[in-house]
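Re: the multi-chain job from yesterday

Posting the exact lines I submitted so nobody has to dig through the queue logs.
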Amino acid sequence: MIDDPFAAYSGTNRPKPEGIYPPTEEMLSEPVDPQWKAACEDRLRKAWIAPKGLAYFTAVNNDKIGAWYSLTALFFMLMAGVLALLMRVQLAVPDNTFLDADRYNQFFTMHGSAMMFLFAVPMFEAISILVLPAFLGARDMPFPRLSAYGFWCFVIGGIFVMGSILFDAAPTSGWFMYPPLSTEAEGIGTDIWLLGLAFIEVASIAAAVELIVGVLKCRPPGMRVNLMPLYAWYVLVVGGMILFAFPPLIAGDFLFELQRGFDWPFFDPTRGGDPMLWQHLFWIFGHPEVYIIFLPSIAIAAMVIPTVAQRPIVGYSWIVLSAVGVGFLSFGLWVHHMFTTGLPNISLGFFSAASEAVVIPTGIQIFVFAATLMVGKVQKSLPMLWISGALAIFVLGGLTGVMLAIAPFNWAVHDTYFIVAHLHYTLFGGMIFPVIAGIYYFYPFFRKGKMMSKTLGRWSFWLIFVGFNAAFLPMHYTGLIGMPRRVYTYGENVGWGWLNMLSTAASFVIAAGFLVFVWDLLRPKRDFEIEKRNPWNAGTLEWSHNVPEEQWGVRSIPHVTSRYPLWDQPRLVERMDAGRYYLADTEFGYRETLITSVLDGQPMHVQRVTGPAYVTLLAAAFTGGAFIFPTFGWYAPAIVSGAFAIVCVLYWLWTATAQIPEKPTSDVGLGLRLPRYASGPDAPGWWAVWITMLGDATAFASLIFGFFFYWTANEAFPPPLAEHADGALVAAAAVLVSLSWGATRGARWLNRHDHVPAAQAALLVACLSSALCIASAYGAVADLRPTAHVYPALICAMAVWLIGHLGLGLIGQGYCLARSLAKRLTPIFDADLANVTLLWHFITLQALITCVVIGLLPGWMT
Amino acid sequence: MSENELNHDEFGTGVGTLMWITLAPWIWAFHFTICYGLTAILCEKAIPDGDVGTLRLVLVAVTVIALAGIAAAGLSGWRNWTEGGLLDKRGETGLGDLASRNRFLGQVSVFLAVVSFIGVVFVILPILMFGSCR
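And the result, structure tokens for all chains:
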């Protein structure tokens, strides 16, 4: 082909960035042609136009999704708050009959579950999706449709779980769902909790993928890791934590639902199971989760405080230390929720020690904030008022945390109101107050120049602050004198009445404060005078936003050389507006953003980002079906719904990802030409696969942990006379999976070196081996009776896990083969194949470990 | 005119370098896992009410290795941090150049090494203080 613009390139010689970087001052001061500028703006506006009418809900822009996401989370928070008020009414006086025991159980379970799963974690994701691209001067998140998919999954799952309370069908076993209470619970409450929340956990992992890739690959040119806004550091750490914290719970949910649905006895001690495994898996998730909630909220403080003090943060590296250090140490704390379960005292000691150690990095960031405020010129403002309240309350919660980390004290107050007081202090101080501070601070950014009311803000602060302390400070004492958590009523003679009445009265003061806040947040502000673009005189990129609003994110992507570019790079905003910087235009009318290198933010390529689509909505709806139908035991519709979800996702990938570009490179401005396609580690998609599979590997590791856990917890595991997996078929599966992996890897190499038909043949071999491997894995366990004992049950569960993954890998191989045959995957444009190969590295590793564990290990153990 | 950085050959993707600063906390995590795992297995399977002398010896040895590893991670970070003089104006970690980025990564590694060192010492205390599993 003579006209082929790619004729000069091949699979091993791809387009590279060319031209000048970094830009010189001379280039930056060159004026922009006003006609060209206007034409660019027109083109950008057209590319980023928001869908109208009914299609409005197909929007995928981060500002839309972020706003919907946070308002939905706020709605669930208010509902969970109403449940809290109803519980407080019930507890106001002794022997009250306002709620019966069952309804009270439903309410406290849903209050905790909703606050954690439907508010705190999603709120972090929502706010990050909303503000992160602006912090980084990016047009949008790297995978806008994935954000949208995650959001719609959250909406469907949230309504399903929260709605159960209206049908008297909500779970009743507490937000941590301990078996055997929960496994034996009647009705579908437990299943709603398990499946509904597992579904939302998937959405959380989607958000983590999006945010990690966003921070690593979508920074503006020049923004090295030592110049990132602190919020980005926190997002990176929290994203990593989600990958290691949520999967154990997903693995736990998987085992739990197998017990609920099919009577596989993972938590039933009469058949070798052990309820303690659930406690471990839940709290390996649950404790880091507290920090997953806390860190991004305190990240807001790290953005507000320099602005309020009008100076750079004191000790940037100390904050990074603190975030990373807390991220790690928080995984060594989970057993402090299990101090009374009879583990060896020496084990408790390890967790007690780690729980005390985590105070060090947590304390450091509080001191960094105090130091920044001390050396700066502090301006009084509403965000700062809320931050001060946050610090005061959080420090109190932290101090009781230090007390609770000491095992003997913990034994004394376990499951009392002291715990209730402690956890509410940490969550109000560590999450609610900083998030509200953030909303006041970022409101002029969200609403493009409009501000929230100072008077109403002060009212709501003092109502919530005073109400909170009046409600929860007495609870420390209520707990110390013996009131247990989760009792629906108490007798007159115990003397807790007046304390409870005080807490109840104060809880309504908190509610009044929230009403004022929500009214101020949502009330129409049409006649409001538009304030300045940067009302707080902040130094970070989000305040270069366009007022009035434009949909394109940033007009042009700046070259950044400072932590506070708006303070230190005087003509930055003016040049951004003029389109002097990168990607001021869209050559083909596509939505695009810039991908840069991980450490130094060097420009690497232009990434086309996806636009509005119905398919994401459909994919979310069908995924919802796959999770929701099993609640009612409707497995056939669930499978059909899951199949449709897969079809939707495949359609979405086929039509919108890894598209072959019109030309090899594009002029992005300032004398720089960048490639329009990337594959392998250069491509954001490859990182998304890597990150997702890391989370998946963690879930798998939790299953393996379960195997060893049962081995330590049982007298004999495997039990004598147990049936084992068929050794020959397990060995066959190991050989076939290796073959499939080798063929996939080979296909990538062959394709890249221009041997396209050979690559297609290799993919065909890979598909066949995967299919045969599925058959042998199934055959290996087909004769086992998983309901008899936990040993065959766990073997079968691991086989189910493996077959699911092989199925996914098979779809990936088939997809690549189809793409290759359709000429959408070529030697130069092989991103799909690179991603599927990466996927297969993980699948193969898991498969081989599974084969060793179910095939060889039992023989060694007996 | 500053030099053209486009062709600056970055080793791999850069994620490896970024992960390198977390070496010390990873050592903490492995040390923690070994302490917890070994104790759980031995106390359940081998020495339910017995003496933890051997366990103590093994874990102290593991701790010494862990602390040495953390110290090495800290030292290597210290070298990056102080390259070009610690108290010099050039010692800043917030400038938009390569040297400043390296100093920053070095500084964070040192800080994390200190926290991890304390963490490891904290975790080994119970095994020194307790005479038995119970």
